[in-house]
Write a structure and sequence with these properties.
Number of helices: 3
Radius of gyration: 14 Å
CATH topology: HIT family, subunit A
Shape: globular
Helix content: 25-40%
Largest sheet: 5 strands, antiparallel
CATH architecture: 2-Layer Sandwich
Strand order of the largest sheet: 1-2-3-5-4
Order of helices and strands: HEEEHHEE
Number of strands: 5
CATH class: Alpha Beta
Number of domains: 1
Bound molecules: adenosine monophosphate, zinc ion
Structural class: alpha+beta
Length: 114
Amino acid sequence: MKDCLFCRLAAGAGGPLLWENEDLSVFADINPAAKVHWLIVPKAHYENIIDLCSTEEGCELFRRFGEALPEIVAQAGLTESGFRLIVNCGRDGRQTVGHLHFHLLGGERLGVHV
Ligand code: AMP
Ligand code: ZN
């Protein structure tokens, strides 16, 4: 999608990615909320999680995201220590970037949310 920051970053325009495969790109959050704060971003443009899960193709991509997750978590060094995976959606969910992304947070004991 034209003029989408995360489309550009997922394509590698921001520099080397931390992890990638055919479907997904991973890069560090510019404003980390924890010692490890990675963003897992589909290369294809979906606005949010509902947009993703509203098509068969998107659901299939979500399944492949699940398949890739253990490898990404291992790459982040969080397999043993644990982590939090967050997806924000819409106004009340405080989504600020209109290209679906999953926050992977860890590397320290996280606070109790929200
Ligand atoms: P959300 O509020 O769920 O939409 O999260 C958007 C996230 O994107 C925030 O945690 C921002 O810090 C992060 N972010 C915004 N711009 C950039 C950027 N250029 N590179 C990396 N992360 C970014
Ligand atoms: Zn996009």
